[in-house]
Amino acid sequence: MQLPKPVYKPKFMITRASHVVSRVRNLEASRAFYCDLLGLVVSDENATTLWLRGLEEACHHSVVLKLGEPAVERVGMRVLTEEDLDLLQAHFAAAGFPTRWVEVAYQGRTLHTTDPAGTPLEFCATMQTRARLFAHADRYHGACVLRLDHFQVVTQKVRESLEFYNGMGFRLSEYVVSNGNLDMIFLQRKGNPHDIVFANSRGPRLHHCAFQVPETHHLMDVCDLFVVGDKQGQVEFGPARHFSPGLARFLYLRDPDGHRIELFPSHYHTVDIEDKPIEWKVPEFKIGGWTVPPDRWWNDTMSFAETAS
Amino acid sequence: MQLPKPVYKPKFMITRASHVVSRVRNLEASRAFYCDLLGLVVSDENATTLWLRGLEEACHHSVVLKLGEPAVERVGMRVLTEEDLDLLQAHFAAAGFPTRWVEVAYQGRTLHTTDPAGTPLEFCATMQTRARLFAHADRYHGACVLRLDHFQVVTQKVRESLEFYNGMGFRLSEYVVSNGNLDMIFLQRKGNPHDIVFANSRGPRLHHCAFQVPETHHLMDVCDLFVVGDKQGQVEFGPARHFSPGLARFLYLRDPDGHRIELFPSHYHTVDIEDKPIEWKVPEFKIGGWTVPPDRWWNDTMSFAETAS
Amino acid sequence: MQLPKPVYKPKFMITRASHVVSRVRNLEASRAFYCDLLGLVVSDENATTLWLRGLEEACHHSVVLKLGEPAVERVGMRVLTEEDLDLLQAHFAAAGFPTRWVEVAYQGRTLHTTDPAGTPLEFCATMQTRARLFAHADRYHGACVLRLDHFQVVTQKVRESLEFYNGMGFRLSEYVVSNGNLDMIFLQRKGNPHDIVFANSRGPRLHHCAFQVPETHHLMDVCDLFVVGDKQGQVEFGPARHFSPGLARFLYLRDPDGHRIELFPSHYHTVDIEDKPIEWKVPEFKIGGWTVPPDRWWNDTMSFAETAS
Amino acid sequence: MQLPKPVYKPKFMITRASHVVSRVRNLEASRAFYCDLLGLVVSDENATTLWLRGLEEACHHSVVLKLGEPAVERVGMRVLTEEDLDLLQAHFAAAGFPTRWVEVAYQGRTLHTTDPAGTPLEFCATMQTRARLFAHADRYHGACVLRLDHFQVVTQKVRESLEFYNGMGFRLSEYVVSNGNLDMIFLQRKGNPHDIVFANSRGPRLHHCAFQVPETHHLMDVCDLFVVGDKQGQVEFGPARHFSPGLARFLYLRDPDGHRIELFPSHYHTVDIEDKPIEWKVPEFKIGGWTVPPDRWWNDTMSFAETAS
């Protein structure tokens, strides 16, 4: 498989997957899912919006839930500095994508744009901060979500996405080849296997948003809570382990509006330039290891608000 | 549901489920499964037999594997004293069951008999001992099996089994009712929910033999080992949790010959006479909690050697 | 070391260590310790008393806390039936110990008496029940205490205690010899290493009361909570592991009034008559394994209310 | 406390703490410690040297052990590209530090130099790779060390070290102030709290080298192994948790030659520029949380080979 040459010194520094903005029908049902069961904490709230963060996060929010018809508004990423934000804006504009400066609550200067797949993106350099609760054991409950880790988008423009993100300094950590074509790409900026993943299917739609939890037992603990709360139908796949891309133990859940959430307890680091991308071929795939994803895990995805109309 | 009156002071003291004697086609394949993956240790072996025990067991063996066509020879239970053994022999003989005194390697005086379901049983009061490895952290590996806990037999004589075992001082901890009939009974002597379980299906056949492991993560750890060893097909059901009888987290595996093994990390104690049996009705069953057993978990069972001919 | 002959068929059936009745200065401070931090649940309460049970316990209470000057009122044990209670009363009376029938809230007929060490004891056959919360994952928090396991009493009458308890069918699981004398004895009825332990020191006083928690991480989790609550001084010893009697991982805590609580995640079973008592000699002792108990763990013990005057 | 202005866009990209080169008296004793107990794997070896890596590391080595009088030869860091290495060489030379290009087995072009504290440093951009064993559950044993994380150096030049490392783009994550002076600084490049720490004491000497393990139970598991192997004296401090800098659960061990190793299961991420350094003042220090470091943890440190003469 021909792969683009890595860009080690991009013109601007995107640093990490940062937050997701989603629409949900009922904020109290969402709060029960994200806070009571997943363990995220409320940084702020009003009548139409919840801003949530994980237990180790100092940033104001990694999940923003707005009242509305279920859809994903945007996935958010961080750049390092305000200067990077300007360079990024110029880059997207030069590439022919619409860019728009917007005011976003609790965030610094924010840019809205899209990528070749049509993913609605939001970039900023800064956000308000709140106390890190990493060592506040009294605030840990449910799955004890620590932080947002990555997104997975489905699109038929996987190759174009690879070229575009690679050009901005994203590193390809793993990829899947099917019949000689790129089927999935795992792209990272923060030194673990992924910040954003693109998988081949009609899109752009969001497959899932992934969060780190502390330990393996938290995957089992939170499943117990779903059953006790008579919500076992929201446990979609796992706990099990991927023995193909990602290689992590996982649990996939569905929130009350159908947004898919992945929880996982650990990931490997990949920083050095000699870390070559791992190639997987479809027949040797071991998603789930000793178990098999249900059909809905493959097929159900969430529309993006701006493309859903 | 009409239940028999508990017998708190039986004439003889059966103390616990003790061991299983099974036939397997290949001792090295079985050793790889039971020792390398499950973590049992070899107490003794010869060309045709492996005697295994769990890491906390002082008794010489809880699993005996003999070369032969796959089948279960016997399930073994302990009585407290030699005197209990004689009283038990008299009881089974008076009830019309064949009884036979046999010589069994590493065991004291041993009685062979059967129960109303036709389960081939073996009773003894003593066994040779080996060092307990409970605190020998250097011997822990794989699933780190600590000890044998219970058996599940399928039979259409569930009611008869309840009457018979109840009469010998077994306590009913939980039971399942289906259309007004007894569908499953969980019977115990050692103070946790079960030593032997009978489930309604054509039998007598063995559904599974269960072992305790230390902690939840061991259920996930051993699944990883099955996949790494390209044996993921032997992981049948779980890790998950029962929210009906037993109430424990579990993992069901199949050994190389199809014998089903359950691993679980913890169980509640039930000793006091005010602990009434828990009744479950079929529609409220939550076997597996957030997941569902595969068909083969319901339907595949192992024949007993003496009844298989 | 000369040991008494085990009594396998005692005249009456004591079944297990059951509950402890303690006096504390402030019920709210005690509730914060036992419920918020240890995870016990309130079965009932009034202005002067809290009745608590562990998450797997069906019995109404395993801990009773009464307003008063800090002391232990009684340690409670269960007999199997009402008939056993009468036989036990006769046995204690014949041995010259005072016996008294008392009314105790939520308990069946209850007997007060003392043993050779002077330990104030309470026996009953039945208690009211409450829902077992074993699988109620939503009720698990803090150390997630599952159930009471055993008591440790200090006395200079270790040999007399062994003879007396052995005569009632208690099995000696382990013992410590120091300069040819019995220094500690571990006695059990329920099939794990101990229901009651006697250690050589001026008494009778209570060293600690032990409870089982689900897994190793709960020992670390609850320590975090003590520090977050600025109560790190109540963490006395551990988490670590005993490599002498008991062989379990442990954590010793002190409640707000100085009552010592041990938490441990697992114990081995010991049921069969070939399980000989394990002898430990003082120099080979490894209490704490890689760590060493502080002086106060050895020396601070709690008075019994009736002997404190 | 006056802190230097962060340098977000340094002239060259140091990426992470990478490896440590230590001298030990007996390679077999060291292999028993690092491989059998800690779980590192051997990438290569010869008669005088062991090259080890953690279970998730693709890089050839994170620990190099050479036969010799116990001392630390160097701590190693990575730069992103060969060009960064040249820029770094120029930077150190311009600052007046000796720089030397050396041949190092299994590494690309390597630079030796020192920092203001006198720490002997080694930088390279590339290293040979070996298979990542992250998902190879069959290779996990002992503490299951995943990867090297950071170093702690003692020096009286803490302020100078801060200025120098800050100038190279290291971010200050946390720091300790004692009587108005900088007592400890935690510096990072890879997005978690530290790659290198400087603490105020006579130096330069190495306090410890830290490695990540998967989960909390691994800290307890490996302590058991030290006791079973009669090496309990090498367990120095923990398992416990820091409630001041780092905020992680930890265990400190001493290798057979006295090199101190920290193991910890998790750390928070810190990437965004609004993540301000956390200031700790000496009296509010909670190193160890509910426990207290032994004197030797404060006072025993390891000499660097080049400064030891």
What labels would you give this structure?
homotetramer, alpha+beta, 10-stranded mixed β-sheet, 8-stranded mixed β-sheet, 18% helix
Provide a descriptive summary of the structure in words.
4 copies of one chain form a homotetramer. In chain A, strands 9, 10, 11, 12, 13, 14, 15, 16, 17 and 18 form a 10-stranded mixed β-sheet that branches. In chain A, strands 2-3-4-1-5-8-7-6 form an 8-stranded mixed β-sheet. The longest helix of chain A is centred in the N-terminal third of the chain and has 13 residues, at 82-94. With 309 residues, the first copy, chain A, is of the alpha+beta class. In chain A, strand 11 and strand 12 (196-200) form a beta hairpin. The first copy, chain A, is 18% helix and 36% strand. Chain A is built from 6 helices and 18 strands. The radius of gyration of chain A is 18 Å and the shape is globular. Chains in contact: A-B, A-C, A-D, B-C, B-D, C-D. Chain B binds chain C through residues 8-9, 13, 15-16, 56, 58-59, 78, 80-81, 125-129, 132, 134-135, 146-147, 190-191, 214-216, 241, 243, 247, 265-266, 268-276, and chain C through 8-9, 13, 15-16, 56, 58-59, 78, 80-81, 125-129, 132, 134-135, 146-147, 190-191, 214-216, 241, 243, 247, 265-266, 268-276.
